[in-house]
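Interim report to the steering committee. The following record documents the input for Histidinol-phosphatase (232 residues).
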Amino acid sequence: MTTRRLALFDLDHTLLPLDSDYQWADFLARTGRAGDPEQARRLNDELMERYNRGELTAEQAAEFMLGLLAAHSPFDLAAWHEAFMAEVIRPAMHACARDLVDEHLRAGDLCAIVTATNTFVTAPIARAFGIPHLIATDPEYRNGRYTGRIEGTPSFREGKVLRVNAWLASRQLTLGDFSESYFYSDSSNDIPLLDVVSHPVAANPSPSLRATAQERGWRVLDLFDHMEDAKS
């Protein structure tokens, strides 16, 4: 067995104290790039509420979120995303999260972000964290445009396990080839992947995941607590 370790990171509310998918849609709405801004914000809020209740499917989220990509040219989307990174994402990339990632990278661990948010939104964020691999929901791209549909298996709930296993298989690896495997997540939606690694970590966990972690003896990591203390 190899002594190499695997470190997987959820993104939203795990490495970032926000939801990048929600914030991207909000950014497009408030800058007048999402059709009817008020309707877009209402739909965005509704999807977030349903996600938090565990009632949202990847396909339901894609109808709105990937529809925002399909409505615009890749040229415009790329320019807007640069502004989004500067205005919203980089200020939210706090040292505590960057240090956690750097600890695993310096140790030589194989690192990847595993997120339900689509690759268009998250690929620049993964690069900014220095994480070389990204497993995310792939938006379908045909004839120079996004179609608004999902390509392949969404990286969501059990789909994250399938996608991680497929990614490792493409590298002639399995989870069992690692001496230790870590997954950091805030959400109960990620219990399927937390269940299969040797070191599940409930990072900034939702109340339901915190309860599960306490029941199962999983490590709980509150990355952003000190930030709240500093503000009080």
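Residues 163 and 232 are 41 Å apart (CA to CA). The committee is asked to note this result when reviewing the revised timeline.
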